[in-house]
Amino acid sequence: MGKDYTKVFAPVARMETVRLIIVIAAQLYWKIHQMDFKSAFLNGVLEEEVYIQQPVRYIVQGQEQKALRLNKALYGLKQAPRTWNATLDRFLQNQSFVRCPHEYALYVKKEKGSLLLVCVYVDDIIFTGDDERILAGIKKLMKQHFEMTDLGYMSYYLGISVQQEEGRIFMSQTHYIKKVLEQFGMLKCSHVSTPITAGASLDKLGIKVMLILLYLEA
């Protein structure tokens, strides 16, 4: 949906970046906080002119031929992800955050000798630092500008379960593995030492196709 747009890409954090933040937090005894934006794309302010037909049941009598101009993005609009990212980027930079030139989803802020790291993945945001008071202030400020859910300490992010302890952070994909097993009806299966029945005969093409299909389904 949408015309006359040229850029739709929106940067998201790489898994390597997320792991690096977890490592830094563990070494420096920091806690990682997590928040979630509600209906994130609806916050994106459009820079270009975008028009839509009047929605059914909201058509203005006598002006049926007119269209509506969008001020903010809608889900399904091609520009929505990039527009949301630009809106969040402006907000963070207005709060003195500096975007990493090599990882556009990572922001850094130095305040009163303290360091704060923020990592964004679409509508999920994690942040950590050495001053819990500053972290609490950032949470409060973001809630004032966006409708958000405070998830407390990070416990599950991008398919990874995270358990934070003093000076140690454990990562696992137990939840994801259980989800895949449940999807294929194998949650109650017995453990085996081989991924396929011993002695099964498959040609090379058959093995390749089977693995690709299973991977896509998971």
Shape label: flat
Q: Percent range for helical residues?
A: 25-40%
How much of the sequence lies in strands comes to 15-25%
Largest β-sheet summary: 6 strands, antiparallel
Kindly name the structural category. alpha+beta
Strand order of the largest sheet: 4-5-6-7-1-8
Mean pLDDT: 83
Low-confidence stretches: none
SSE arrangement, N to C: HEEEHEEEEHEEEEHH
Number of strands: 11
- By DSSP (H or I, 4+ residues per run), the number of helices equals 5
- Radius of gyration using CA atoms only: 23 Å
Report the end-to-end length measured between terminal Cα atoms: 29 Å
Characteristics:
218 residues, alpha+beta, six-stranded antiparallel β-sheet, three-stranded antiparallel β-sheet, 5 helices, 30% helix, 24% strand, flat
Give the helix/strand layout.
Blueprint: H1 15-27, E1 32-37, E2 51-53, E3 67-69, H2 80-94, E4 98-99, E5 106-111, E6 114-121, E7 124-129, H3 132-145, E8 148-153, E9 156-157, E10 160-165, E11 168-172, H4 174-183, H5 204-217
Tell me what the structure shows:
With 218 residues, the protein is α+β, with helices and mostly antiparallel strands. It is built from 5 helices and 11 strands. The chain has a 6-stranded antiparallel β-sheet, sandwiched between helices. A 3-stranded antiparallel β-sheet has the order 9-10-11. A two-stranded antiparallel sheet has the order 2-3. It is flat and about 75 Å long. The chain starts with 14 loop residues before the first helix and ends with a helix.
